[in-house]
């Protein structure tokens, strides 16, 4: 969207460890709420604590001066050229072909045998 967050690495270090707990308690609240609603609501309060930490943490780091840098518009022709290179590279590498970085060497896909080795 034209912005580059320079504080995102710090935000990820601070906020990312909380995500699994928010997901865990959210899932537990969902399942428990289907069995017994008051139990699900109680567990949802625990999920809320972690989700509130994430939300407020994101707001806090977004308020840091210089947290984002405005980028110039990205030209459409450069985007299309990038996609052409990626798709061309993918098409070039599909199938049992010669490895481009090792001329004359073919990729071998040998099936491994589970039979005991003969001496």
Automatic annotation (TrEMBL):
Domain called ComEC/Rec2-related protein: residue spans: 2-92
Residue intervals passing through the bilayer: 6-28, 35-54, 74-93
Keywords: Membrane, Transmembrane, Transmembrane helix
Keyword Membrane found: yes
The protein's name: ComEC/Rec2-related protein domain-containing protein
Keyword Membrane: yes
Species whose genome carries this gene: Kouleothrix aurantiaca
């Amino acid at each position: 969207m034209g912005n580059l967050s320079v504080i995102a690495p710090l935000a990820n270090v601070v906020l990312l460890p909380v995500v699994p707990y928010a997901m865990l308690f959210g899932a537990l609240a969902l399942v428990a709420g289907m069995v017994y609603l008051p139990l699900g609501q109680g567990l949802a309060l625990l999920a809320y604590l972690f989700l509130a930490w994430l939300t407020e943490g994101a707001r806090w780091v977004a308020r840091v001066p210089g947290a984002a840098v405005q980028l110039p518009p990205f030209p459409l022709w450069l985007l299309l050229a990038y996609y052409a290179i990626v798709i061309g590279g993918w098409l070039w590498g599909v199938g049992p072909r010669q490895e481009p970085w090792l001329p004359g060497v073919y990729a071998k896909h040998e099936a491994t045998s589970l039979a005991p080795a003969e001496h």
